[in-house]
Specification:
Distance between the termini: 16 Å
Shape: globular
Number of strands: 8
Largest sheet: 6 strands, mixed
Structural class: alpha/beta
Oligomer: single chain
Order of helices and strands: EEEHEEEHEEH
Strand content: 35-45%
Length: 152
């Protein structure tokens, strides 16, 4: 699993010109799923995501989490996070999870975040979407298997 987390002051996703999800202050998270991911994997990522302390406190230090600031999540499925560009100039997406598996885990992540008490907006799995955001900082963090397993 890979999560590209962007701290935002606002973000929205639209399909065919219609806004389907939008948030104010919080995280825009692009969610990529690979074939070996499980619900246990997703649980680990959700815990890390919701615990990230990347909002500034009164002293300007990044000590506050999403819940600490009453932030929201916009979760957007993004299989292209598994693009493999090592050969040639056209990315391969063979490492991305098959659509059925990926959609199930994406939905699991969405529901897990909601059950944790966070307001969650979403895109639509598999749809052609337009995402807009105001990145706050800018501050962008990649959560992937290397980061969560302590490797670089």
């Amino acid at each position: 699993m890979r999560l590209l987390v962007q701290r935002v002051t606002q973000a929205a996703v639209s399909i065919d010109g219609q806004t389907v999800g939008q948030i104010g202050k919080g995280f825009l998270v692009l969610v990529g799923v690979c074939g070996s991911d499980t619900e246990a994997t997703a649980d680990l990522y959700v815990r890390k995501l919701l615990g990230l302390r990347i909002f500034e406190d009164d002293q300007g230090k990044t000590n506050l989490s999403l819940k600490d600031v009453g932030g929201e999540l916009l979760l957007v499925s993004q299989f292209t996070l598994y693009a493999d560009c090592r050969k040639g100039n056209r990315p391969s997406f063979l490492d991305a999870g098959d659509p059925k598996h990926a959609e199930e885990l994406y939905d699991y992540v969405v529901n897990s975040c909601r059950q944790a008490g966070v307001r969650v907006a979403t895109g639509q799995f598999g749809a052609e979407m337009k995402v807009s955001l105001v990145n706050d900082g800018p501050f962008t963090v990649m959560l992937d298997e290397h980061i969560l397993q302590g490797r670089r």
